[in-house]
Amino acid sequence: MSKEIKNIIFDLGGVLIDWNPRYVYRDIFKTDKEIDWFFDNVCTADWNEEQDAGRLLSVATEELVETHKEWEKEIRAFYDRWEEMLGGPIQETVDIFRELKESGRFKFYALTNWSGETFPVALRKFDFLHWFDGRLVSGDEKMRKPFPEFYKLLLDRFQLDAGSALFIDDNMRNIEAAKKIGIESIRFRNAGELREQLADLHII
Q1: Residue 2 pLDDT more than 60?
Q2: pTM, whole model, 2 decimals?
Q3: What is the reported pLDDT for 138?
């Protein structure tokens, strides 16, 4: 199958970009236990995913403040200080991306769950986001992983065949969804392991 791969699809957060809200909330709370509680009960993953799916940051913030008025300051910090959550590039993975790009053998696409309002910040900060032949940002498209429609939109928009693509993501839920529609996939854990897996596929 590796001989057929012509297109490599990258997730961004957790694969090429170190994004972690704890970088902000370690300044706000004293312990990891407090941070865990806040993310489990107030600024939850489900809440954040709605912004990835296109909900306006202002709407999301005001609705959550209305529900958790005692946490207003902490809630507003999520997007007021959002840029501080960007820890920087995951350089070892960016180096792999560069190596593959310079080989001239593949085209590259980004498929990311990301708010359309905050993604321009990343575009300004990270030059490698401009190396892609195409990008789909969930917040702009009003759909997100792991829903199959989002993957199919990428294939349709850029006229890709699922069998010619390789998808790299750190979230197993997203990997399983890609496999169900015929996209060969690698779950990202670290750059060293990714390099080994790409070598096994004769991609690098």
Answers
A1: no
A2: 0.92
A3: 98
Listed in sequence order, the residues at least 6 apart from 159 whose beta carbon sits closer than 8 Å to its beta carbon are none
Bridge partners, 19 (sequence order):
86
Residue 62 shares a structural domain with residue 149: no
Helices (H) and strands (E) in the chain, counts: 11, 7
As a whole number of angstroms, the distance between CA 165 and CA 2 comes to 9
* Full domain range(s) for residue 189: 2-16+90-200
CA distance 38 to 74: 9
Same domain? For 109 and 137 the reply is yes
d(CA 77, CA 132): 31
Band of residue 76 on the pLDDT scale cut at 50, 70, 90? very high
Is the pLDDT assigned to residue 30 strictly greater than 50? yes
